[in-house]
Amino acid sequence: MGEAGSADLLNLTIPGELRELAAVRRAVRACACAFGFSEEQAAHICLAVDEALVNVIMHGYGGPTAEKIELSIRPVGSQGQCGLRIRIRDYGRRVEPSTIKGRNLDDVRPGGVGVHIIRSIMDEVCFTQAEDRGMILQMVKRLPQEVAPDPEKP
Amino acid sequence: MNDPVQEIRRTGAAVVVALAGDVTIEQSPRLHRSLIELCDEPVQHLVVDFAAVPYIDSSGVGTLVDIYRRLKRTDGRMSLVALQPHVRSVFEITRLDRFFSIYSTEQEALQP
Hints:
heterodimer, A: 154 residues, alpha+beta, five-stranded antiparallel beta sheet, 3 helices, 5 strands, globular, B: 112 residues, alpha/beta, five-stranded mixed beta sheet, 4 helices, 27% strand
């Protein structure tokens, strides 16, 4: 796992292996809780990250692989609007972002709800193609205003 | 990989399956196999106890959806009990709480 950058609360580089995900979940959850999200909100953020990483491994890379995935979390915004920006960068298959959609939930069948979960939980979700190879997913989750840290307080 | 199925009990016409631990893409294939084997013989009522499951992802939910569809084909039914708040919220986010019968306790699920 990589070293933290100056503005990042969390900065990880992991191989695209499913067995890595439990440790990532713990790290993301701890980061979200430390930032001020409730346990339930942190668990939701953790789920969104988990679903995104599984999509990268299973679809971007076509299955578990030693190829890397980079994950970083940093604070964004100002008082009343602050939150966490989560960035996931992979080096797998590039996909046209407009084709990344959750499926119709009225059709009860297994699979295909990961993107729906991500979009339901996060306030902003943006998939872009990286310049050379792979995809970049940037997601923002804002703190509810009543728990946003007050910069005036010591 | 650990099998999330910790216990299987038969109570009248119902089969109660107690799960434990996270149910994610790592455990879901094993869970799927266990539940498919269980449903080899017709099951009238499958009760899945989530009391010891703190976390589930979309693959875990997908596994249950597949078993639900199989049971429906043989007129069986499926109930989920004792869901922790986060697990319940995943069913709500995916709007699958409309299809599953969800109860607070096993006793409620087993009431005629």
